[in-house]
Amino acid sequence: MFEHIWCEDNMGYEKDGAFVEKITAVVPSERQYAHMKRKYYNFIHFGMNTVTGKEWGDGTVPPSTFNPQQLDTDQWCEVLKKTGSTGIILTAKHHDGFCLWDTKTTDYNVMNSPFGRDIVKMLSESCQKYGLDLGIYISPWDRHEPTYGSEAYNDFYVRQLTELATNYGELFTFWFDGACGEGPNGKKQRYDFPRYYAVLRKLQPNACLAICGPDIRWIGNEGGHVRESEWSVVPAPVVSAEEVADKSQKTNDGGAAIQQISSEQQDLGSRDFLRNFDSFRFSPAECDVSVNLAWFWHDDAYYQGKKQRTGEDIARIYMNTVGGNALLLLNVPPNDQGLIGQREIALLTGFKAIIDKKFAKPVTPLRAEILSTDGALRPAPGLLTDAGEAFGDTDHAVVLTLPEGQQVSLLTAEEELRHSQRVERFELYSQSAEKTERLYEGTVIGSGKFCEFSAQGEKLILNIMQSRGAPHLKNIQLYE
Predict the structure, then answer these.
(1) How do beta strands 326-331 and 40-44 pair?
(2) Please, which residues have CB within 8 angstroms of residue 373's CB and are 6 or more apart in sequence?
(3) Distance between CA atoms of 123 and 434, rounded to whole angstroms?
(4) What pTM was estimated for this model as a whole?
(5) Looking at the predicted structure, is the pLDDT value of residue 239 above 90?
């Protein structure tokens, strides 16, 4: 019988007390909460590197080189919207310093190229047309700007941020990477990140400041890998621009050197790990990964002899990230003519078909109930409607009664993170009159957990084995 399976002692960890109260007091800001709902969105790496075939430009290529004659931001948005995207982050300026908007800060910009149009404005209008959010990547490293390496560069960079934050409508994020190399004068720059943040908080208060920013945390690799337990409540020192810069890509290799997670980075949020720190932050993890194992577009010759991703690879990354309490930022680089090419479209279409198949047939349980340690059941219909349910002190499991003979292969669960991330360990069981069978065991749930299995029984039981206080589950869904 199932009543002999639950873990009444919370795996030996405190259910309450001062430390539990301290870490469960750490909750997302409203901007973080809204951002996490996006789940999956896209990077667009596009610029001078696209036409020169480089990953890192040096800022010496003249603007006259840039003329993507078929550039169509509507096509970008149409392709990405059809394949499940919720937003686009554009590389408005990469390390070469070439700006894709009508800037007054430098002559090294798209308006002085044969193309001669403001690409940020074009994309902003296309995103509005297709119902996508727009975000901005603007590299702090600038290999063209002569003031780089001085305080005057911070003034220059703030002017660029101000232009982008005031002229293109509401933006959902500003994405800062950790690259810090030499400028054209051989100097390195001390970035004034607190000043950058203050300007953007004033001009774009709803925008999340990502990676070298306080709102969204880099997951630590560019290979699509998620920790077994990806926590959003982490020690405050983890969320720092200096920490990200130290671990960021240091070589011009398309990111091949940071495709893995080192073992010492595996635990960033377990209760045992958090005890070593005094201050904590809510910091959702974002996984940035490219469809092509390179960030900018390259012709077929570039990929000769190199293993490429498939639609199956991208689908697996999606399931592991979006279904592993992480955000997925998938880079899709347009080609040198300014279009998302057939190679990339085929990858996205294949990925979307796999995901659509997994979620094609939702199953509605006959009822959802919460089970207490005394065997009492109480209705919890909110779990099936996104309304959510809070567990009491003696509650430990969700019981979903299935239609007779119903086959199920996927369960998705989500916590109400306004009450922090709480679930530390859970198990999933199927139950019939003849037997109870364990189907799945996992750790965190957070913003989303995807559990794949195969079961046919009278009931599915989600058993909370360990939690930081009473869990607050927001939604559970089943699929054939």
Answers:
(1) parallel
(2) 6, 8, 394, 395, 396
(3) 59
(4) 0.94
(5) no
